[in-house]
Amino acid sequence: MVAKMKIAILGAGNVGGALGRLWAAKGHSVTFATPNPKSEKVANLLRTIAGTTAATNREAAASADVVALCVPWTAVQEAVQSCGGLAGKILIDATNPLASDLSGLVIGTTTSAAEQIAGWAQGAKVVKAFNTIGAMDFGNARFGSQRADGFYCGDDPAAKAVVKQLVDDIDMEPVDVGPLRNARLLEPLAMLWIDLAVNQRQGTDHGFKLLRR
Ligand SMILES: NC(=O)c1ccc[n+]([C@@H]2O[C@H](COP(=O)([O-])OP(=O)(O)OC[C@H]3O[C@@H](n4cnc5c(N)ncnc54)[C@H](OP(=O)(O)O)[C@@H]3O)[C@@H](O)[C@H]2O)c1
Asked: How far apart are CA 212 and CA 53, in angstroms?
């Protein structure tokens, strides 16, 4: 029996909306965390995804087992701090530290967005995941007989086991790529996906697969 999680999603946009829809369909309890939970925009979202709720960042995070960070890089530090403490929580980092013109990443090689987030969210069990494929492919990542890989990394084995299930729940192949510092490698991989899709105009029907033998 797979555990059903209480999940707070910070950022109800492309990524947060897609994850929320898919996780709610799998029976998880999903709350969209937003600075303005009573806005018309949020009400519209809740109408389209049965069983979900909305709350402020602080309220949603306080009652969640898992907090999924799905905001633009420029909003990440404020969003994390607005939760008012995430110690002991599983904090999924789905962000990418993109330059505003999508020409590259604004941090990398000697650190990563995920490691910076771990510094801001003291005591949280940070797992990087859901950042290496477009949100339009969540729940739609089958390529012939194979599923695109959903890479994740982190330092807490129990948190990673939960994220593994949440990756499977959006019908991607969970692939553990090691410690959180390997977010330094996953974030550039995301940039490759984006560059192919946007800068090289190849569309969004691609995903990554690690082959083994
Ligand atoms: N788009 C993709 O395909 C994709 C795939 C993988 C990873 N990512 C990464 O995922 C992150 C989100 O991307 P996205 O495309 O989903 O962005 P998006 O569609 O622009 O959505 C961002 C959401 O974050 C909300 N937000 C902003 N500041 C917030 C705060 N302080 N607290 C709570 N919510 C806040 C925004 O609300 P308002 O609209 O009200 O401002 C909006 O709902 C980015 O870091 C991106 O690089 C994106």
From this structure: 41
**Structure tokens given for 78:** 């404020």
Q: Which of 64, 27, 177, 51 is nearest to 114 (CA)?
A: 177
Where would I find the beta strands (DSSP E) of the chain? 6-10, 29-33, 53-55, 66-69, 90-93, 125-129, 142-143, 146-147, 149-154, 173-176
CB distance 21 to 46 below 8 Å: no
Report the alpha-carbon distance of residue 194 to residue 21 in Å, rounded. Answer: 23
Choose the residue to mutate in 9, 10, 15, 138 for probing ligand 1, maximizing ligand atoms within 8 Å of C-beta. Answer: 15
Quick one: pLDDT at residue 43? 94
Cβ–ligand 1 contact at 205 (below 6 Å): no
Give every residue of the chain whose pLDDT is below 50, as ranges: none
88 C-alpha vs ligand 1 centroid, how far in Å? 24
- What is the position in ligand 1's atom list of the atom closest to the CA of 33? 33
Q: Whose CA is nearest to atom 47 of ligand 1?
A: 96
- Give the tens place of pLDDT for each residue, 62-114: 999 999 999 999 999 999 999 999 999 999 999 999 999 999 999 999 999 99
